[in-house]
Task: structure prediction
Amino acid sequence: MATATQARTIGAKRSGKGSGAGLSRRIFKFRWIYLMLLPPLAYFFIFRYMPLYGIQLAFKDYVLKGIAASPWNDFAHFKYMFLEPGFVPAFRNTLIISFLRILIGFPFPIILAILINEVRMRRFKRVLQTVYTFPHFLSWVLLSGIMLNLLGSNGMVRKAVGLFSSGAFDNWNLLYDGGAFRWLLVFSDMWKEAGWGTIIYLASIAGIDQALYESADIDGASRLQKIAYLTLPGIASMIAIQFVLRVGAIMEGGFDQVFNLYSAPVFAQGDIIDTYIYRLSFVRASGVNLGFPTAVGLFKNIINFVLLLAANAFARALGQKSVL
Amino acid sequence: MKRKFSMVVALLLALAMIAGCGQATQDAATTAAATTAAAATTAAAATEAATTAAAAAEATTTAAAATEAAATTAAAAASGPVVPELDPKYAEPIVVSMNVMNAERNGHDVRSEFIKQKFNLTFDYVPVNWADWNEKIRTWIATSDAPDLIWWDLKGQQAQEYTSWAEQEAFAPIKPEYFNDRPLLKNVYDTSPSIPALSVDGTLYAWPSMRDNPADAQSCYTSYWCYRRDWAQALGLYKEDDIYTWDEWLNLIRAVIEKDPGNNGTANAGLVMPNWGFPHAAALFVGPPAAEGNETASYIKVDGKYVWPPSLPEYKTGVKWTYDMYQEGLIYKDNIVFSASEQEDMVKAGLAFACYNVTGSITNFTDTMLQDGVISDREAWGTAVVQSYDGNWYMTQTEDYWTVTALNGAIEEKKIDRIFDFWEYLWTVEGIRLRRWGTEGWGYEATGPNVADVKMLWEFDEEGKYYIDPFLNKDEFNEANGALNDRGTTILTPGNPTYQYDQMMKVWNLMASGKIPVVVKEFDFDVSFAVYPNKGKYGSFGSEVKERLSALVAQPGIDVEAEWDKFVAEMMPRVQLVLDELNG
Result:
């Protein structure tokens, strides 16, 4: 049966006309399956492609009559972007925080996935997965409250520290200490998202041929050797893909998290482009100018796109799968 | 086993969903009660309505609101509410959308029902809250998605935006001819100083909700400290009439933190402030630096020239006081990361001593604290009059209106017509009474022609001293904002004793008495609403000042005055652009 199907496919490929007819026939035959593609297509068209029309706002002064009626402004938003005293620090903070997230936060789910995979008791393994994954489903609004209760002036951490010190940390608080704030962002993000991040790696590990592990056992490989020579190479392509995607989003500093955790004392270290633009657009008295945030968004996405291409080329150079 | 477990989980989920629908059921019960009350003409009918509402309340998961509605309905039993007759000119029903606070509480009482019956006018409520109000309006305007009535906390800082939107026809003009047959509104139009300020090239685009404070209040902002009077008394530091010198005030806060009269342990907080007031309220709002409403970084005239207050020596002194208070712990340290209603929650939980800006919601605070057993007497929580470090008591004057209501640029004329008729009515004696007390026969009985000539039908609280406000939306009857009105008579009448107004009156009477030196930080319409390119672009740099001050107070061991000088020097090149416009 399989051979007959293959023969029909090869035959269809040889004849261009037949190929088109075959494709139409196949689409018609599986029309209900293809129909299921329509909602996501509509979604992408409406929410991902149609808004591209609005990009021109980056080069215009928005007026209420609409985008088309808004006059061009000679790159005024881009000039203003670099003249605004807060922009460059926010740009720098975004890069630093994202870099720290990649450096420390990126390997963590991989390590966690490998550790979970090594647990032999299936029930315990499932409990661990659930426990690690759960924080992902809590919003940053809620988590910021939890953080305040943990780390605030009357929080559990301060009380615990108070047991061992007499007033040494009275004036110190992680939530509004500029030096500690970036680390707070990185580690709280790891705590929230690492469990969720393990899912894809665990799935990848599950796809590794078990015969390889059996062979390694026969050869007398230790567990660490199996991790080093079987598991890690087995998921290397997935790590590369995740890395490329992560680098491609380097200008996304995590608005939800930062917005809910930061305060004025840590603006110098924690204010990222998104929060800065939010304050500029909605908090300051000058009011909304839709063109300016659009210009910044465009700027961010161009950087993201360039980095995505660079990371992709780098992954390919290392012999890994290409994302693009 | 697995199947049974799944069924139990599914059942629990279904129950959770039903519980989630409780609010709607409650609202329905409340609506039913209110509607029945308005329609009832005899005591028997009203009593039956109360029974119906009580029965409905039993069916809800949260019965408090419905029970309240039932109680208010029962109040009608005294004589029966007056039911208005529908004027034939209002035959066509009109639905008007409008943004309001606590939308879920609106439209469920006799006032709304009265409006519907008298004017055939129904409101479609669009929710806003203090935190997102301006953001929502900006988004609505930018996307042409605003409600018919755009209720806005428009202050001078937004004048540029307002002007620009008006010029772009986001708002419908409020034409002088609207007042031809509406003498009460015309009086406001002709006399209020805010009308010219809100006019763009001679055309008005937003209608002010006039403050209903008495003349003695001089349109001063009703934001000051409210505090735990019972804690001060327990510490033996309570001062007669709640008047404290600066040193007495600081010593009182120190004593509260040290001696912990609330038995809160380490969780004791001294001063807490709403996000917008942090950290200015501690020393700058109540001290000499100039202020424009909630903004201390406006522009003021000194020796005939406009200057930027943060650059003045008295502002730096206020900064130093704020810094010292924060570092000493008199200001609750975590207040710096508050973003919503944490300060209010702390007070209501009995964890904080004093909170800024709650004068207008004392009832809300005391009700909650009494209900939760945090205080045993309403008077345990009240206003404090704090004299600043120079001995003066500072009050901040603001616009003569509270908020404004603009008409959507696309609103139909027939809606405008109905709305203005409704607002005109709200300025009549009967309208003022409706806004404040409800309908005649339900909330009050008229005994004479003046607003205050009434016999109240509201119930008294357990102490028998103050009336219980029967409305779910309390003071937030936002549909009536077109006519917040009558300069004091509505709230200062002897027919309306509520603790909240007692406390506000006390402050205003003190202002008039001359007992302590009062300085009013005067509001300047000219500079506040002046529209210039750089002023529009930069405003008064209020958020920059707030950000830097907040950042500085949290850093221990710095020379805050030197740091402030550096900040001012850093800001002046941009500030000067605005000052040049104003002084030019």
